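User: Run a structure prediction on this.
Assistant: Running it now.
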Amino acid sequence: MNSRVAPKSHHRVIVAPQSFKGSADAVAVASAIARGVRRVWPDALVEEMPLADGGEGTVRALVRATKGSLRVAHVRDPLGREVDAEWGVLGDGVTAVVEMAAASGLPLLDVSERDPRIASTRGTGELILAAATSGAHRIVIGIGGSATNDGGAGMARAFGYRFLDRDGNELPEGGAALARLARIDGQTDPRLIRPAVEVACDVRNPLLGPEGASAIYGPQKGASPEVVRELDAALARYADVVEAFIGRPIRDVPGAGAAGGLGAGLLAFLDARLVSGADLVLRAVRFAERIRDADLVITGEGRIDRQSGYGKLTGAVTAVARSAGIPVLAVAGGLGEGHETLVLDGIASANEGVTLAQAMSDPLPLIERAAERLVRARARATH
């Protein structure tokens, strides 16, 4: 007897996971879940909508989800070397998406090269300019994974601003030199005047202090406790000069400390809006519209725990689907404490019965089987 349960002819399944960090990107995860669904429902209409939270992989996920196109720009990496950085135009043709990790990200540097005193966001500025030059009306920026702690000064340099010391000499790149900042010259590149800029920012850190950019994120970028203090003092000087230059406060805006203070630079030099990464991504792919009339949504991430339900992408996907009356299943790499806070119609761990090393090295068959188990259980429960 065939154990497959044939779906209704209109059965429509939306597969909307994010990456399983460290093992599989969102596109691969969505495909694996879709294969699991089709093992149970071979005739279902399965729509793959890989998602991301603003960090590495955001460009590819949003371009894929909206049937947009990928582009490449030649920009500088955190140490000034030329690198090819991917960015994209979404399916609407007027929204560009960039991720700062492609130009100023930690993975671009060897461990021995990590030094937030000299690392610069100039390449991110060049990437934003490339997007603006394309004629985009809106630019979406993901700012996860930075190697930098320069408050976005390098980015502003790419836009045409100059950062000068008391003697009128231009400061070198990087966060440490900002301790000698006396004044800023210049104005925004005219290409940046038209587009509205939205930043996917899920952290609430201010620019300065014990919860600020240098203290919280500096150590993972190679900063010793002494360097953290040096960088925090330099960013305090930077904030004084920038706020006088633009005529409004930025240092305490929630998210100003994101990405080594790039949040503050985006507020100051692009008048950007810092918004929840999950909300931004779901709006960019028109998630609420596209799941209308779906019979089932399947989401997933590497680890589902208490945090997943509070402002994270998996929680946001679940909330939107449930408010539309659509059942939600989730595939997780692993389940952490408090995963019950996410109100789901079913959940399966892909790592069940295998070691973490096995799961990380070959995750896709495990994800596929977990999705199959979930859908099979769902099919039994509804027939």
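The two ends are 17 Å apart (CA to CA).
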